[in-house]
Amino acid sequence: MKPITAIIFKDIVIEMRSKESVSSMLMFGVLVLAIFNFAFEPSSVDRSLIAPGILWVAFSFAAILGLNRALAMEMDNECLQGLLLAPLDRGDLYLGKVASNFTFIMIAELIVLPIFVIFNNLKFNFQFLEIAGIACLGTIAIAAIGSILSTISANTRMKEVMLPVLQIPLTVPVIIASVEATSMVLSGETKGISSWLYLLAGFSIVYLIVSYLVFEFVVEE
Amino acid sequence: MPDTFALEAEDIRKTFGHFTALNGITLSVKRGEFLALFGRNGAGKTTFLKIAATLVRYTYGKLRIEGIDIREEPEKVRRRIGFLSHNTYLYRDLSPIENLRFFCRLYGMPDSEEKILSLLDRVGLRRRASDPVRGFSRGLHQRLGIARVMLHDPSIILLDEPYTGLDANAVEILNQILDQASAAGRTIILTTHDLEQGLRSATRAAIIDRGKIVFDGAAKDQAVRDAYAAYIRVGVGR
Q1: Which residues of B touch A5 (CB under 8 A)?
Q2: What is the complex's ipTM, to 2 decimals?
Q3: In this predicted model, what pLDDT tens digit does every residue of A72-89 receive, in sequence order?
């Protein structure tokens, strides 16, 4: 566990100094919420129908920005190679990067979420915590697959473009499950929500295990 | 006795798509030897060092570090190796002391504050221990890179063009550290274009061309200089 915590701690210190990852995710997330808030009048459509989609568009695209930043930090001065020289299983390095990516994405989401609540005239009650829980599960899957895809895209010519091209199709099931679960929470009809949560948990586990196993082959030339 | 060798490479080949970077390198380096590896750009020096450092996977052959197969137990191999490349692998937003602390944790070396400070002393960076690396010149970067390499007391030190961009003072510091490491019985493999720098402390020299070792001999022999001069002449005419 020590190397994993070392990677997280190092990433947090760098983020506190550069303020590049969380601030860009935050800015993007708030902008998406604000634009959609003006695009849809509160009276025109039932907010509970579109609000979950807006929230997850903001979360998933903001996460891509954060993952790109995390990648750029490791590619600067070829720092990733320095990590690879450590006497550790490559999978442990992957877990460290997933944990720090998850931390930063969650921080941005937890700041964006209250703004979403305000824009949609929702209340800061138990619903808010339930959505935060769904966001947590969805973010594990996004960080798990995003961390390995950002490493793959690092070795391509158009790395900033390649990450969303690879990431968005692979996270579609996660986004659909998250949107459905969030929608159920907002409408108050939570019967059947467990199947969406199981799906989210399942994708998170599958992405984590598969990426853990193949990370070694992704990082070695 | 195979374990008397620090590095044993048997017919190492590496291809990147259609490009052959290494075309069958066979090389044995004894423990404590200081090998200078010469060759022009694209000859395969860096690829070979990166393979030995477990950063690049070879296509064919066998490579053992102190008797350990690098494919079977890469973590054990990495613990014994210190690798310095053109890039120093240091985080620009961290200070030297924070960078070295981080690498100590990665190598599972807790309570290494004294060691970090003494290394910073050796490379002349003690006074700048808390400054962000972002503001460092190439020479200072490389000095800190040397400290990173020496941090976990590696028994084999791999240096890829370590003199590039260093001023006279930094070259002197690097030479002192290499001399001390060599005297302490560490194995050093260094690649360079600079014949004089390469031969300064080396006990053995090899020339690599188009992915193959084309010369291998004692560093003090005149044959090295003759072979290198011929190699450069042929290269120019080619």
Answers
A1: 105
A2: 0.90
A3: 888 888 899 999 999 999
